[in-house]
TrEMBL record:
The gene is xseA. The keyword Hydrolase applies. It comes from Modicisalibacter zincidurans. This is Exodeoxyribonuclease 7 large subunit. Heterooligomer composed of large and small subunits. Residues 127-440 form the Exonuclease VII large subunit C-terminal domain.
Length: 449
């Protein structure tokens, strides 16, 4: 930074920022002028200057674009499409060219854009049907003597020679091109619908590169509509990668070049061969592995397999062994049961009922004798105790008191009358005496004293 705080840039940083500002600020643009100072180094790039009567602009047309563009000569009037940039190492202000057109084509391009918008609004560019890959029979509409059909056939022969191809030759530029191509599309559709026809299932419309005027037949409105209405799916490959026509937009699929169209239409037999070879190798490996596993399984089963006679002999031996074991077990079981029966018999003899009855009878006789001896003693003791209790009871019994001349008064509810105040004159009372009862009536109550 300087004393004011402004950052100081390096030259490379300044050029980089300037380039970014130019590229973002302009983007793609068109420039028209005269070509001069054309240079073609060994790299294949083309460097030249575009100028008018007051200024000039350095331009760079890189190799990948230059090979699809007509050669430039000093003095040519051209329209360039590209983006403005800076070559940072030298700080050169320049234009990176994407497309080159001869000057004077502005009216054609304007008409092209108007017709493109009109057809797009009408849905002519809406077809997106898939093309069969590979097609059973391919119809190609192109010039019989052009480089396009040679490129297509060469690619098809290299990639998929099995596909049959029928060429419907037409002129691809000039006044006769449009009606001829439209007729060829109609013929291909009619032949495809015939029961015994060639069986077309895909249609390729193609030609090689050229100027805008050379390709103008493929910008015809009627041709675009014919492609749109084709019942066969259509692939268009007109011109080079940078060329775009209305036929390309109306087709179901667009290819950048005739060779690219052929590559998209069919698979590569070399890829399929490699895939088949890989599948064959995998199949052989799986087959060998399976055979080895099955052989091991067979060996295992063979080792386990025995002759029926040998198997019967083994079973007889096993049966004899089991019979011998059964006999030994039965003998042991019988001896054990005999010993158990003898033991139970001895125990049963010890529990003979007659012996137990004899012992019980002796015990019963003894108990009976003791009972006969104890009963008189118990009766006498109980009699004496009863007499004593009777005397004690007589001593405290109310009846003894009544025997001495006293009486107990009871009302009609058999409640004892303890006070004269508990009675009323005329009330009936019962007097309980030592012997008998009296029925009394209260005449009057006397006060104490």
């Amino acid at each position: 930074m300087d004393d004011t705080g402004t950052p100081t840039l390096s030259v490379s940083e300044l050029n980089r920022q300037a380039r970014m500002l130019l590229e973002r600020g302009f983007g793609d643009c068109w420039v028209e002028g005269e070509v001069s100072s054309v240079a073609r180094p060994a790299s294949g790039h083309v460097y030249f200057t575009l100028k008018d009567d007051r200024a000039q602009l350095k331009c760079a047309l890189f190799r990948n674009r230059a090979r699809f563009t007509s050669p430039l000569d000093n003095g040519d009037q051209v329209r360039l499409r590209g983006k403005v940039s800076i070559f940072e190492p030298r700080g050169d202000y320049q234009m990176i060219v994407e497309a080159v057109q001869p000057a004077g084509q502005g009216a054609l391009l304007a008409a092209f854009e108007r017709l493109k918008r009109q057809l797009d609004a009408q849905g002519v560019f809406a077809n997106q049907r898939p093309l069969p890959c590979p097609p059973r029979h391919l119809a190609v509409i192109s010039s019989a003597s052009g480089a396009a059909i040679r490129d297509v056939l060469a690619v098809l022969q290299a990639r998929w020679p099995l596909v049959p191809v029928t060429l419907l030759p037409v002129p691809v530029q000039g006044k006769e091109a449009v009606p001829a191509i439209i007729r060829a599309i109609a013929i291909a559709n009619r032949l495809a619908e015939m029961p015994n026809g060639p069986g077309f299932d895909a249609l390729l419309v193609t030609r090689g590169g050229g100027s805008l005027e050379d390709l103008w037949a493929f910008n015809d409105e009627h041709l675009a509509r014919a492609i749109f209405h084709s019942r066969l799916p259509v692939m268009a490959a007109v011109g080079h990668e940078v060329d775009t026509t209305l036929a390309d937009f109306a087709a179901d699929v667009r290819a950048p070049t005739p060779s690219a169209a052929a590559e998209q239409l069919v698979p590569d037999q070399r890829d399929l061969r490699r895939r088949l070879q890989d599948a064959e190798r995998r199949l052989l490996r799986c087959q060998r592995s399976r055979l080895e596993r099955e052989a091991q399984c067979l060996d295992h089963l063979r080792a386990r397999l025995r002759h029926p006679g040998e198997r019967l002999t083994q079973q007889r031996q096993r049966l004899a062994q089991l019979e011998s074991r059964l006999s030994r077990v039965m003998d042991q079981r019988l001896r054990g049961e005999r010993m158990r029966v003898e033991h139970l018999q001895r125990r049963l003899a010890g529990y003979d009922p007659s012996n137990r009855v004899a012992r019980a009878r002796g015990q019963l006789d003894g108990l009976q004798q003791r009972l006969y001896q104890a009963m008189p003693r118990q009766l006498e003791q109980r009699r004496q105790r009863l007499g004593a209790l009777a005397r004690e009871l007589q001593a405290v019994s109310p009846l003894a008191v009544l025997g001495r001349g006293y009486a107990i008064l009871e009302d009609d509810e058999r409640q004892v009358v303890r006070s004269a105040a508990d009675t009323q004159p005329g009330q009936m009372l019962t007097a309980r005496l030592g012997e008998g009862r009296l029925r009394l009536e209260v005449k009057r109550r006397l006060h104490k004293g």
